Amino acid sequence: MDGILQCIIIDDDHEAINALSTLISDHEGLILQKSFTDPLLALAEILDQNEVIEIAFLDINMPLLSGLELAKRIQGKVNFVVFVTAFQEYSLKAFEVNALQYLIKPITKINLIDVISQINQLKLHQSKNAKPIGNVADDGIYILDGVKGQYLRIEIASIILFSAEKNQVHIFTETGDYIANAGISKVIADLKNDQRFMRIHKSHIINLNAINKVLANLVYLHKDYMAPISPQYRTAFFNYIQQRILKNRP
């Protein structure tokens, strides 16, 4: 469904969900994937799926897990977070977790139109300016290193293995190990044109230049790292190996 944005709603108020669902159903550019009244259930499902969700409409005041905390935990699994709340005082904190918008209930049709217009403009700008990471002059990626506002640069060529765990990706390199708050699908999208990397498992992407040996269904990599090959990716991986086997001429 090209041009249609899939979204979810997470709000412990049934009436608020119903009201927003009606607005979404009336908008031709949106489709509601699912709604949740339990933020913990929502978190579990979001982290468990491979696909990145386009938009999440989150309430802030929810029992067990606030919308602010939930937004932090689903970074890399949702492209755009829009807070929908009855309280004005959380607006500053909302933007600290990279929220796109902060809407005060009750949400109106024009509120929704403005948000979707903003998202479409951002997506258009991103598509016009997007460049595959492996092809840019700066052969590096940047991650937050735990200090607010501070980014750490990692040489792509030094990366041995990406390993996903829930909503985080472990990056193992020749010089150190790092953790990024992103899903494996984000890594795949960024490296899709970089032929140095191949996905060999649901949770693992390897640097082909870092392979030491392959034994059965295990790939042995630099720095003694290992990664399993799952059946889903086995054929493509061994086709790559077969093409590079050194053979005598007939």
Labels describing this entry:
250 residues, alpha/beta, Rossmann fold, OB fold (Dihydrolipoamide Acetyltransferase, E2P), 5-stranded antiparallel β-sheet, 7 helices, elongated, DNA-binding, phosphorelay response regulator activity, LytTR_DNA-bd_dom, CheY-like_superfamily
Write the layout of secondary structure elements.
Layout: E1 5-10, H1 14-25, E2 30-36, H2 39-48, E3 53-58, H3 67-73, E4 78-85, H4 91-96, E5 101-104, H5 109-129, E6 140-144, E7 151-155, E8 159-165, E9 168-173, E10 177-180, H6 184-190, E11 197-201, E12 204-207, E13 211-215, E14 218-221, E15 226-228, H7 231-243
Parallel strand pairs: 1-2, 1-3, 3-4, 4-5
Antiparallel strand pairs: 6-7, 8-9, 8-12, 9-10, 11-12, 13-14, 14-15
Domain Response regulatory: 6-120
Keywords: DNA-binding, Phosphoprotein
GO molecular function: DNA binding; phosphorelay response regulator activity
Please tell me about this protein's structure:
GO terms for molecular function: DNA binding; phosphorelay response regulator activity. Keywords: DNA-binding, Phosphoprotein. InterPro entries: CheY-like_superfamily, LytR-like, LytTR_DNA-bd_dom, Sig_transdc_resp-reg_receiver. It holds the Pfam family Response_reg. The chain has a five-stranded parallel β-sheet. The chain has 250 residues and is of the alpha/beta class. It has two domains: 123 residues, Response regulator (Rossmann fold, 3-Layer(aba) Sandwich), CATH 3.40.50; 111 residues, LytTr DNA-binding domain (OB fold (Dihydrolipoamide Acetyltransferase, E2P), Beta Barrel). It is elongated. It is built from seven helices and 15 strands.
